[in-house]
Specification:
This protein is mainly alpha-helical.
Amino acid sequence: MKEKLLQIIANLCEENFEEEKLKEAKDLVDDLGFDSISIVELSVEIEDNFGIHISDEDLDIEKLRSIEFLIELIDSEND
């Protein structure tokens, strides 16, 4: 699941993306340069690829910018 998530994130990154950067990243905004539009695109991709719904409560850029939060969110929705 984590590898699939990281692949989705990599697909949304800019062309000059370095794969090593993704492995070390913890914050999508600070570490990978995501903006609010990228975060929204990512949330749609997560919903589509993992068959989950991200609640309005969780649809918050401060929460969604954390890779660990995204992993926990997907895990909790798949239980």
